[in-house]
Design brief:
The protein is mainly alpha-helical. It has helices at residues 12-23, 26-38, 42-70, 74-84, 92-125, 133-144, 147-166, 169-198, 201-209, 218-230, 238-243, 252-280, 289-301, 306-338, 343-363, 365-394, 397-404, 409-434, 438-445. It is 80% helix and 0% strand.
Length: 446
Amino acid sequence: MNTQTPVSWTNRWTFILAATGSAVGLGNIWKFPYITGEYGGGAFVLVYLGCILLVGVPVMVAEVMAGRAARANPVDAMLGLSRDAGAPAAWGFVGLAGVVGGLLILMFYSVVAGWALDYVWQSLTGTYQAQSADSISENFASLTGSFPRQWLWQTLFVALTGGIIAAGVTRGIGRAVEILMPLLFVFLLMLLGYSWLNGDFVRGLEFMYQPDFGKLSREAVLVAMGHAFFTLSLGMGAIMAYGAYMPGEHSVGKTVITIAALDTVIALVAGMAIFPLVFANGLEPSSGPGLMFVSLPIAFANMPGGMIFGSLFFILVSIAALSSSISLIEPGVAWLERHGVKRRWGTFGAAVIGWLGGTACIYSGSFFDLLDHITANYILPLGGLLIAIFVGWIMQRQTVETAAGFENPLYFKLWTTALRYIAPVGILLVFLHSIGLLDTFMQLGA
């Protein structure tokens, strides 16, 4: 197997920023804060952190470690590692499914990211300032009903994503995340300060952090487990591709813990920047695009400095979307590059596929929903489950120990135990729940 890689991150923090950028996406801005409040506040956060440690971190370590061990894209990494372990070459399809899954996600993700870019422009030009709630709601409906507007912003977003990837791992992705992620942190802290001064901060704290153990139902635990898995961008090969560029002297475990901590902190701070503004304006928190594109513009339209901080918010959302979209294309581009296709042409081809799929999503809302359903409920959980099984049970133990780089044997044993037994069961439960079969299987078992 090839043990050398022609490129690598300039340092450990570049990898951390890239992987955190992959993890921090649109879901961190609205979904995690919302489900935290809905499923028990501080009690849910405790369960979520447990799921991060027992499900998310073990699988993320496995993906990073596999990428670093193979020094290759997900497809070739799985093929090479399975060959070394004497396993069937069919394991390569796990990597291929991740590559395909990333492109499918880009198709509908770029549409939502395009909405964010549109709202950056609206905020800068004061389009929704001093408008009524009904007018702002109608404005979002007008955007989602306009093919030309959506197509224009979606095209721009895909072009930005492709331009960064075409520049290469170091000069493109590395440099981009070194600029984008610090900007995201700064903007988020500025919005937090604005929310502190202008929002109902106490009610926001109560909504997100007041423990309500009565809400910790089976549903809440499964939601926590599912989000712990999905928020770290697992199961689609992005983290494996990034791991291939990770220098060999750094600890995988410590690095992954840092990434998981940053991802969680950003999600929690985002909630504290958003919900005080929502409550201060007498609005109800809602999941989905409605929170970002209706409720928050209403709040910004009626607050001092709303035009400036509304612009900052939607720039933040766009940065989060862009840092995630980079990782959706990179696995496929890295695979093409490994097989002789120049990076710029591989990027162009992958970006065009994503752009065409995004155009189809704009044209057909049912196609948008179908891609979302297939990727979230099938490709990602099954990919993560198979990676956990492969690294935990099939991959050569010596290769695993060397690539993982755990200094303490106890930590290695704890990780392998979680990867072999806890993570697969957790992912399987989330998968069965997401497709509506968990109750059926439990009734059969009873």
